[in-house]
Amino acid sequence: MPKLTFSLDEEAVRLLRKTAARSNKPQSLIVREAIAQYAAREEQLSESERERLLGILRVIKQRPPTRSRAEVQRELDEITRTRRTGWTRPTR
Q1: What is the mean pLDDT of each run of 10 residues along the chain (92 residues)?
Q2: Structural domain of residue 53, as residue ranges?
């Protein structure tokens, strides 16, 4: 595992030590867990990005279908059948 050197302010150090002692975990584990939680939170969409993407989906939903329901159902049935039997590449 790589070793890193970085600086923290006194309050962050105090909180790190307090949390490590309270949870009976090494300080390095507390830092790793905190980074993982921060990264997971950062991967979530912001409210404005979420609204933008929902707007795109609303526009797409309003467009007329390009295939009939029967065509779509045939394709879904074929996908279901091949998943149950194991997929093989069609011969040409």
Answers
A1: 91 97 96 94 87 94 93 93 76 70
A2: 10-85
- Residues 6 or more apart whose Cβ sits within 8 Å of residue 23: 30
**Does residue 91 form part of some domain?**
no
Domain tally for the chain?
Answer: 1
> Is residue 2 included in any domain, yes or no?
no
CA dist., res. 54 & res. 51, Å (int): 5
Residue 20 has phi, psi (to 5 degrees) of -65, -45
Q: Which two tokens stand for residue 28?
A: 């390095």
Residue 76 CA from chain centroid, whole number: 26
Q: What does the pLDDT look like over 35-47, one tens digit per residue?
A: 999 998 888 888 8
